[in-house]
Amino acid sequence: MHTSAFWRLAQALLVLWAAFSLSFAILYALPGDPVGILLAQGGEPGTADPAQVAELRARYHLDGSLWQQYGGALWRLLHLDLGVSLQTGKPVAAALAAALPATLALAFAALLIAVPLGIGVALAAHQVRRRPLQAALHNAPALVVSLPTFWVGLLLLQLFSFRLHWLPAMGDHGLASLVLPAVTLALPCAAMIAQVLGRSIASVSQQPFVQALRSKGVGRWSLLWRHILHNASIPLLSLTGTLLGNLLAGAVVTETVFSRDGVGRLAQAAVASQDIAVVQGVVLLAAALYVLTNLLTDLLYPLLDPRIRQGSRP
Amino acid sequence: MSTPLVRIRQFGVEYPGAAQAAVQGLDLDIAAGEIVCLVGESGSGKSTTAAALAGLLPEAAQQHGQLWFKGQALDSLDERAWRQRRGRLVGFVPQDPGTSLDPVKTIGAQVVEAMTVHGMPLAQARPRALELLRDVGLKAPETLLARYPHQLSGGMCQRVLIAIALANDPPLLIADEPTSALDVSVQRQILDRLQQLVRERGSSLLLITHDLAVALDRADRILVMRHGRLLESGTPAQLWHAPAHPYTRQLLQASPLARLQQRRVAPALSRELPLLQVTSLNRRFDKRGAAAVDGVSFSLQRGTTTSLVGESGSGKSTTARIILALERASSGSVRFDGLEVLGAGRRQLHGYRRRVQLVYQNPYAALDPRQDLLAIVSEPLRAFGIGQRRDHRARVLALLERVGLPGDLLHRRPAQLSGGQRQRVAIARALAAEPELLVLDEPLSALDAPVQAQVLDLLQRLQEKLGLTYLFISHDLATVRGISDQVLVMSQGRLVDQGPTEEVFGRPGSDYTRRLLEDMPGRLVPEAEVQTRAVNL
């Protein structure tokens, strides 16, 4: 038990380190110079004072060789110092902390829509017997998954904000402003849930035990609720990691389209200006969230599946 | 006699798009308290008939004709009405106990549910569940209630399923091949218990089986079905002494019971060195646990058939895997034609593998579904660099002919073949490497009895023609007796009996072998009768 907990922690740290190193390597390899971009924003491009450039480089730890920069950044990270934003001069940790609540609210709202919607569509596709409706329910998820998020967002904006004036188009004040971005973010997630659960329900329904349950006199609905859904939901757990990725990636697009503040928008702005410290902060945050979700999933599996809970036969 | 419990008249089931009706023109009565066995190969319509009686036909099925149960018409019931009757009118014991219980619900919950769905209060259902589990012969049922199906053996799961089927005291119990997935000794215990419970309660039992020996042992009346039609019905004695239909005669002939008669003439004891010599073989999977293979020694003479018999978990498969160099041994020696196999180098093993080939148990899983027969059978030719590439096609054709498959199947895929044809393909693939020893791992267990007889016949002819040596792994003692020169009986990793076939069968050296022989289905048919029967056939 203790050793397995130790290994899990070691694994988590390894994932965080890998994410950090990979993002560092990619950012380092990018063409363009962050300090150059910073100075260019200040006004006259190309006329920067070499002394000023060197001073900025030193302040943001951008001097020295690749290994010196990497080593320094890793060392500061070990002391929980995420560095300072190149653009604002403020600590990255503070910027992340400021942006996180809005994104969490958005992601949570999206999940609140996506999970019931996805499960509902999967169940309906299983239960509905009328041909055209059944076909529609079976095919809709695949279609929705392949729609680009920004396009869906713009479409919703066009319809509900500009045409019908039901909901605000942008900003992040109040619940009303949360509805459209949450729906935009929820749709692909719901579609993914519906696809996986739908397939899983179909395969569980083919299992011999379903026939055996019917022969006991168990009715259609209680068969579905008590037996099929429970069995079918186990593969759904493996989806949580992908869902989280979807939510984070979707947040970048959604927050930009709806002009909301949040981690996604922070990441987008930081990448555009090569604000290395901020990008790395966002990457590390995402990696930490991944690690956390996977841990949670591992804890949930045995709750859903007794075969994992208690190894083999006594 | 009063009206029968079940009366079926001119009953038929069809599936749209299928060329042939699944069941047609079926007339069948089951009296109260009667045990009726429905015998036939797969596709004969026996399972469809059972499903119709239990109200479990798939939606696409179109049924016609009349189905009466205690004078009430069943064929006009809708789903709602059926739901109330399933479990109460008809108890259903499914085929595969391993997959027929909900894996995420406890045993207790599943037994209790069988009663609560029909309105019994929980307080009443709980104690009754305990009583039912005790009735079906499960020990310490209290501790079982909180267990999950994966923690129980196949035999225990089947007992739980029988308890569920009996929960509402239905007047009719349908058991669809209830023991085909279980070991012989467990099979006997389960059938004994089922028979006893049905007799005690005065219920009727419709037992579906492909094993004529089981039917002869258990039935008051046997019905033989083929291609959706009822061919013959009669008491076991009638069917045994005077089978009217040629197909019944064929079934009797193909049944392992008849194979008991094909005693082999033991080949003259050769002075040659044995082809394979296994000495003090040991295999331990973990340091503390019991050995999976414990001090096993035997030898195989060239051109003979040796059967390795045992229940699941006896270590027979591990022994075979070690001989095939697919598994390491903890200690011991395996010598093949002078070569020490354990600890042989890569190149030596490559040569060895060509000379020793394996035919798997399940021909449905052992062939790559995306390859055609040419690719499947020529694979060993490529792997071992046999012959020129341009000759492969001709070689494959010759191999297919050798196993009795027409050459125009060359570009078919396994899904388009029957089970028997697939097993022939698997044999052809094994022969492609021109082996001397063929390890056959339960090669018949997935096949119908008549097909089993054909495959055995093929194996016999191949042995005569090619001088092959067989190691035949099986739990079917009747077949083993018919085809083997030597029998090895394994139990808990040890060889408990070994010797020439007649010696082992006639004077079993261990209690275990004696018990195995007693558990063999068909034991109620006297040996003398089997012999006269075989002469007449």
From TrEMBL, chain A:
Cellular component, GO annotation: plasma membrane
GO biological process: transmembrane transport
CDD domains: TM_PBP2
Gene3D superfamilies from the UniProt entry: MetI-like
InterPro entries noted in UniProt: MetI-like (IPR000515), MetI-like_sf (IPR035906)
Transmembrane segments: 92-125, 137-162, 174-197, 236-258, 278-304
Any one Pfam family match given in the protein's UniProt record, by short name: BPD_transp_1
UniProt membrane topology term: Multi-pass membrane protein
Cell compartment(s), UniProt: Cell membrane
PROSITE patterns: ABC_TM1
UniProt entry keywords in alphabetical sequence: Cell membrane, Membrane, Transmembrane, Transmembrane helix, Transport
PANTHER family from the UniProt entry: DIPEPTIDE TRANSPORT SYSTEM PERMEASE PROTEIN DPPB-RELATED
Family classification: Belongs to the binding-protein-dependent transport system permease family. OppBC subfamily.
Record's protein name: ABC transporter permease
Automatic annotation (TrEMBL), chain B:
GO molecular function: ATP binding; ATP hydrolysis activity
InterPro entries: AAA+_ATPase, ABC_transp_ATP-bind, ABC_transporter-like_ATP-bd, ABC_transporter-like_CS, Oligopep_ABC_C, P-loop_NTPase
CDD domains to which the protein is assigned, alphabetical: ABC_NikE_OppD_transporters (cd03257)
Pfam families: ABC_tran, oligo_HPY
SMART domains found in the cross-reference section: AAA
PROSITE patterns: ABC_TRANSPORTER_1 (PS00211), ABC_TRANSPORTER_2 (PS50893)
Example GO BP: transmembrane transport
Keywords recorded for this protein, A-Z: ATP-binding, Nucleotide-binding, Transport
The keyword Calcium is assigned to this record: no
Family in the record: Belongs to the ABC transporter superfamily.
Protein name: ABC transporter ATP-binding protein
